[in-house]
Transcriptional regulator (Planotetraspora silvatica), 224 residues
Amino acid sequence: MSFTIDDELWSAVGDPIRRRMLDLLLTDGGGTATTLSARLPVTRQAVAKHLGVLDRVGLVHVTPSGRERLYAVDEAQLARAIAQLSSVGATWDARLRRIKRIAEAIQRNQQS
Amino acid sequence: MSFTIDDELWSAVGDPIRRRMLDLLLTDGGGTATTLSARLPVTRQAVAKHLGVLDRVGLVHVTPSGRERLYAVDEAQLARAIAQLSSVGATWDARLRRIKRIAEAIQRNQQS
DNA sequence: AGTATGCGCAACCATTGGTTGCCCTAAGGG
DNA sequence: CCCTTAGGGCAACCAATGGTTGCGCATACT
């Protein structure tokens, strides 16, 4: 059945700010809390908390360098997250399809 | 760019309990707060609140019948949600692919 | 009539996402 | 070498959300 795949991972990408952060990290190839917050509508501290969340589920990893902490996307883990998204989507899609087929079958029966 | 597609809709399916509720409503073809809560690890009131959320974004619709309130999935809206999931997934997937291509190109250059 | 049941409302609690303020420490410029 | 600047962590605080319990109301069942 597997509806509860990995709620931690899903809820990590569930937040719109975190999705935008992942987008930025992907396009820029990395960033710090400060650079990210400059391009987001929230403060550095908020971004830092989000980075903590993403780090805990392994979606990003950090490399301290001097007084900076550079974050980058963990591609393997993001790939896993993508897989889960499409898995849930596929499940629902299949069910919707089945429902539609049944509905059409009923219509056909009623017309005959 | 459209990373902020429809955060309302996304965050509605972002909650694990709500996803399981949608699953149940799809497989059973509908249900009430009480019947759902019987098959979920939360109370009827919690389920009722979630149903309120799903209702507000249009993912379910309700038909009052006597003292019961029967909820069912709005298939069109769920289809929209699925489309958004796969859209975000596809975006990230494309970027990961591009990064991988670049990485391989660099490797090839360094070997030559 | 009276009981049982489905539901809504309100109060309350914990967690989370957000803010501001403060302090520490590493870089950089006179 | 000292002092300023800038990145980042920590703590307090606030609002929203997901969860609970308790209660009251109205509809159905016997």
About this structure: Residues 10 and 85 of chain A are 8 Å apart (CA to CA).
